[in-house]
């Protein structure tokens, strides 16, 4: 939907060149390409699964609220249906960096106006940020590209809103950046320039502006780069000053969030010794009487005490919200409190006394059972920085965590409020040809899920025994679908097997030593008698693969396997495995059950680890190689020879599904390009022709991880996204 695109490797411009061109209107509901089939796209329901970095109630419109996430876009709450509506699914492949929402703002006088500051990474290889503005609550957008970078998935992503509508003038907006100071717009976000008079000097490695908040007619800005002051204000929109008397010291190094009580004219500020969400060990809460300038420390509990087990109780403070209906009522959250677990503190007397809401909380996660974390009980939360109180209901309180958004209507009973909100970064998809589940999936945050129903969170929660926090491998024996294996970063071993199609699991009896530090992808041969496990460190460094022929009881090294490659099993012949050495562009194959590998083809595309090899179901030696911008290649002789598929300009990932009626070959699904755009395509004639099956309103940024069709339902496709969970499409 966006007219201009942000380059993935755009170069950061200097602060002096911040002025940006005006955005161009973008309309929702754009037509499908001629000849493309109509598809309906929905999320496979897990529920939340990612870091909710901000929640914002509109101060004057009952039932209107927004949420932002670090990599999965923004959402609007639909009070009528009790669910979140995604607002940025139209962001395309080239603009993937804009799915991270750094900040959001609403106009108190105009409920239909919404502003988003988007940009996931501030690194040199990421594109610049953009400001999106809407006059219809996010249904359609206008866009202004910035010449600076934002960092919605960087440290400090859970701090306050860095975007603000000026309380004196609805046409004026402020935007705090990480490395380029404070920006100002006087035309509702269409153009931006550095704010004159702002005294803080940004650094290339600091946090810059951490929050912007209106207090009456004044604007306050938090600063995270150090110096003699970290809180500034302006009363006229031109002259800025350091707030006198502000707290100092380690416990008040970084202002995290702030909230203004208009009844008492007091500003509450939470502080920590770092921006979070990780790495905080000290913090405090302070109250400023904005009229007289008096500061009062109102910290509920000072970090640094002793836990029940004798360890240090270290943490910072994160979220803060005031009650718009009850003067002096305020709620704050702890953050990064791992020993005693994070909590919310509530005060009804301006911070003189506090009560921990965790102590009396009753958590109901029946709608999203994975939140039991394999322990039979949920956690109150961690990474609590997003916190909001409904201005129309004093007992309606919500807070975000690293995995969900909890809400209450009575300050005692809490449940996830995440219907429609899916933020998993998905890495693995398997659609079994038989059994109770139509989908088994793995993600970077919540391990493996077993979906018997696509429309509800898995009843058994995440795969346990062991619990894995990030899935690195998932494979099913093609001729024995009840046998499934998985790998990832686990609590008691990094690999497991299942004999009931992925419903229950048991850890491998043993694992190679390298598996503790670098669990990578895994494959099982067609009958499940052999496992081949590859190992890759977080930094991409590969290691030799290991083989097991006794269900993971013993392992032996395979020296001839290319280090760090992804093993692929032949789906028909149990003696065959394949591996693609992306560094050299070489296809290797094994015909002895994975004991040894020999070179079959050379001279194929090379360069990095993103190329993907897939084997067509039910056939021996029928291989497809997605080679990114180098296109799609096919071999029908076990990798001895490859031919480029002329119908594809680019291919990033490819999978198979049930064949069309009358067709003799499985349906092909890919994320790639047959022309100018990268999209999701289906072919029913072995890649002779392709039809686009997504549309401009359903793009989800970067979708190049994995895709697969359903072997039992023609036309159904499952698509992994990097921040919008699992999307599945079906012909209408």
From TrEMBL:
The keyword Endoplasmic reticulum does not apply. Residues 294-313 are annotated as: Disordered. Residues 1-28 form the signal peptide. Keywords: Carbohydrate metabolism, Glycosidase, Hydrolase, Polysaccharide degradation, Signal. Coiled coil: none annotated. PANTHER family: OLIGOXYLOGLUCAN-REDUCING END-SPECIFIC XYLOGLUCANASE-RELATED (PTHR43739:SF2), XYLOGLUCANASE (EUROFUNG) (PTHR43739). Belongs to the glycosyl hydrolase 74 family. The keyword Kinase does not apply. This is 1,4-beta-glucanase.
């Amino acid at each position: 939907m966006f007219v201009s695109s942000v380059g993935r490797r755009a170069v950061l411009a200097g602060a002096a060149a911040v002025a940006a061109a005006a955005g161009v209107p973008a309309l929702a509901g754009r037509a499908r390409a001629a000849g493309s089939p109509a598809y309906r796209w929905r999320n496979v329901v897990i529920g939340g699964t990612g870091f909710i970095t901000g929640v914002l109630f509109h101060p004057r419109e009952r039932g209107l609220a927004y949420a932002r996430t670090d990599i999965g876009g923004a959402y609007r709450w639909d009070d009528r249906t009790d669910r979140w509506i995604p607002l940025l699914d139209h962001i395309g492949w080239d603009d993937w960096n804009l799915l991270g929402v750094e900040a959001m703002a609403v106009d108190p006088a105009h409920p239909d106006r919404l502003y988003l500051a988007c940009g996931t990474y501030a690194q040199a290889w990421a594109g610049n940020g953009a400001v999106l503005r809407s006059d219809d609550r996010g249904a359609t957008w206008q866009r202004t590209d910035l010449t600076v970078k934002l960092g919605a998935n960087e440290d400090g992503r859970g701090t306050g809103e860095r975007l603000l509508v000026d309380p004196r003038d609805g046409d004026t907006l402020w935007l705090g950046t990480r490395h380029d100071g404070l920006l100002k717009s006087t035309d509702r976000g269409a153009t931006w320039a550095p704010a004159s008079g702002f005294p803080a000097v940004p650094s290339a490695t600091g946090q810059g502006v951490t929050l912007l908040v209106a207090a009456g007619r004044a604007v306050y800005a938090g600063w995270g780069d150090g110096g003699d002051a970290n809180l500034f204000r302006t009363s006229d929109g031109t002259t800025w000053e350091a707030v006198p008397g502000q707290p100092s010291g380690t416990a008040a190094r970084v202002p995290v969030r702030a909230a203004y009580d208009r009844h008492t004219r007091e500003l509450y500020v939470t502080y920590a010794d770092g921006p979070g969400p990780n790495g905080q060990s000290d913090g405090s809460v302070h109250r400023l009487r904005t009229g007289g300038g008096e500061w009062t420390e109102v910290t509920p509990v000072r970090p640094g005490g002793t836990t029940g087990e004798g360890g240090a109780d270290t943490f910072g403070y994160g979220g803060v919200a005031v009650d718009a209906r009850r003067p002096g009522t305020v709620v704050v959250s702890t953050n990064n409190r791992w020993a005693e677990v994070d909590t919310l503190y509530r005060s009804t007397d301006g911070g003189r006394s506090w009560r921990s809401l965790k102590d009396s909380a009753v958590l109901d996660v029946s709608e999203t059972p994975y939140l039991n974390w394999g322990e039979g009980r949920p956690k109150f939360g961690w990474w609590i920085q997003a916190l909001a109180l409904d201005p129309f209901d004093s007992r309606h309180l919500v807070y975000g965590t690293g995995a969900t958004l909890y809400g209450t209507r009575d300050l005692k009973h809490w449940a996830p409020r995440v219907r429609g909100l899916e933020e998993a970064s998905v890495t693995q998809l398997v659609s079994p040809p038989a059994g109770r589940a139509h989908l088994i999936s793995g993600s970077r945050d919540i391990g493996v899920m077993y979906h018997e129903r696509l429309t509800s969170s898995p009843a058994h929660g995440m795969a346990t025994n062991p619990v894995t926090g990030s899935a690195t491998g998932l494979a099913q024996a093609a001729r024995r679908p009840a046998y499934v294996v998985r790998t990832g970063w686990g609590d008691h071993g990094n690999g497991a097997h299942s004999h009931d199609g992925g419903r229950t699991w048991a850890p491998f009896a043993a694992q190679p030593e390298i598996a503790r530090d670098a669990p990578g992808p895994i494959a099982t041969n067609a009958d499940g008698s052999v496992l081949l496990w590859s190992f890759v460190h977080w930094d991409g460094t590969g290691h030799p693969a290991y083989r097991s022929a006794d269900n993971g009881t013993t392992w032996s090294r395979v020296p001839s396997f290319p280090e760090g490659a992804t093993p692929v099993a032949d789906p028909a012949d149990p003696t065959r495995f394949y591996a693609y050495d992306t560094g050299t562009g070489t296809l290797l194959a094994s015909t002895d059950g994975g004991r040894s590998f020999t070179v079959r083809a050379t001279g194929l595309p090379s360069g990095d680890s993103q190329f993907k090899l897939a084997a067509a179901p039910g056939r021996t030696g029928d291989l497809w190689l997605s080679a990114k911008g180098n296109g799609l290649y096919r071999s029908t002789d076990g990798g001895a020879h490859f031919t480029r598929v002329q119908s594809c300009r680019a291919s990033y990932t490819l999978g198979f599904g049930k064949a069309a009626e009358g067709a003799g070959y499985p349906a092909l699904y890919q994320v790639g390009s047959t022309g100018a755009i990268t999209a999701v395509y289906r072919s029913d004639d072995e890649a002779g022709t392709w039809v686009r099956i997504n549309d401009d309103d359903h793009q989800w940024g970067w979708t190049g991880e994995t895709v697969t069709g359903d072997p039992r339902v023609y036309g159904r496709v499952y698509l992994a996204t990097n921040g919008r969970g699992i999307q599945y499409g079906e012909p209408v």
